[in-house]
Amino acid sequence: MPNMLEGKVAIVTGAGNGIGREIAIMMAGQGAKVIINDVGASVSGEGQDATPAQQTKAIIAQNGGTSEISADSVAGWASAQKIVQAAMDHFGRIDIVVNNAGILRDQIFHRMTVEEWDAVIAVHLNGSFYVSRAAATHFRQQQSGAYVHMSSTSGLIGNFGQANYSAAKLGIVGLSKSIALDMSRFNVRSNCIAPFAWSRMTGTIPAETPEQKRRVERIMQMTPDKNAPLAVFLASDAAKDVTGQIFSPRMNELFVYSQIRPIKSVHRSEGWTPEAIAEYALPSLAQGFSKLERSGDVFSWDPI
Q1: What is the C-alpha to C-alpha distance for residues 126 and 190, in angstroms, rounded to an integer?
Q2: Which residue pairs from 51-56 have beta carbons closer than 8 angstroms and sit at least 24 positions apart in sequence?
Q3: Element (H, E) at 248
Q4: Distance CA 244, CA 113 (A)
Q5: Alpha-carbon distance 136 to 80, whole Å?
Q6: What one-character DSSP code corresponds to residue 195?
Q7: Range list of H helices, 5-122
Q8: Cα 23 to chain center, whole Å?
Q9: Structure pTM?
Q10: Active-site residue 280, yes or no?
């Protein structure tokens, strides 16, 4: 099915590097006109540099695609509206939003500062809401649209030193589900990808012990382009019946995730006291407890 996005207009945030760049390039290659949104900041969110976005635009042009650049930040409501308006100004419509922009301010929880928390929430969670909300008006009017949000196994499963990032990424899952529920009446879909890739963001993973070095070696095999096909599919009409889901591409593997549902219950006709919970409920409910694990513990086998 060539040119799965022919005639569509896509916004890809954080498209100057890594996963965002590969998604933008593949979407343009599949026929979409693309707004490359990137402020050109460092991994921690400091500074501005137009070069990354310009490089993405040059690659798309070399491949015969069409794109324009937006250098506005996702982290403010007014600037997020400008990103969506750029699509309207350049291409006259908007069909796809890929919320990929992100930063890292990793810190162990008991040392994390309010500034480190706020900065990550502002870009990942607030930014995903702002850009999505700005596009929603157009999606509603035209009775169509697709959102692809970047979550993370750090939020879905867990990781050390990333309370801000994990909370934002799990929050994005809730945001995506709410969008899917609220906007289904307008033929608008919303899905999440929890990507696996070696990029600037994962380049901060420690590699000091032999175990850590082996983990990093596995991750380095997972290049950012492995995530682009899934994003293109989810944005296309071929995924018209897919919404409210969470996926991962891991090298040549694809995963769909379960979502939180009750798995075990106990009932006591006379009600519960704290003592009764300890004596009767806990032994039964504990059989359904989830382990305290990191992403690396769950995805412990080599990618294939």
Answers
A1: 16
A2: 51/16, 52/16, 52/17, 52/21, 53/15, 53/16, 55/16, 55/21, 56/15, 56/16, 56/21, 56/24, 56/25
A3: strand 246-250
A4: 33
A5: 12
A6: -
A7: 18-29, 51-62, 77-91, 114-121
A8: 12
A9: 0.91
A10: no
The CA distance from 152 to 9, in Å, is: 25
- Residue 23: which residues within 8 A CB-CB, separation 6 or more? 12, 15, 98, 100, 227, 228, 231, 232
Domains along the sequence of the chain with CATH: 9-259 (3.40.50.720)
Which residue, among 235, 202, 245, has the nearest Cα to 99 in the 3D structure? 235
Contact by Cβ (8 Å): 41, 119: no
Estimate to the nearest angstrom the gap between the alpha carbon of 263 and the chain centroid.
Answer: 27
CA trace torsion 247, 248, 249, 254 (10° rounding): -60
Q: Which two tokens stand for residue 257?
A: 């995730």
Q: Which of 130, 147, 165, 280 is catalytic?
A: 165
| Predicted confidence (pLDDT) per residue in 35-79, tens digit | 999 998 677 667 678 999 999 999 999 999 999 999 999 999 999
Indicate the residue type of 147: Y
How far the first Cα of the chain sits from its last, in Å, is: 25
Interval 219-249: pLDDT, tens:
667 799 999 999 999 999 999 999 999 999 9
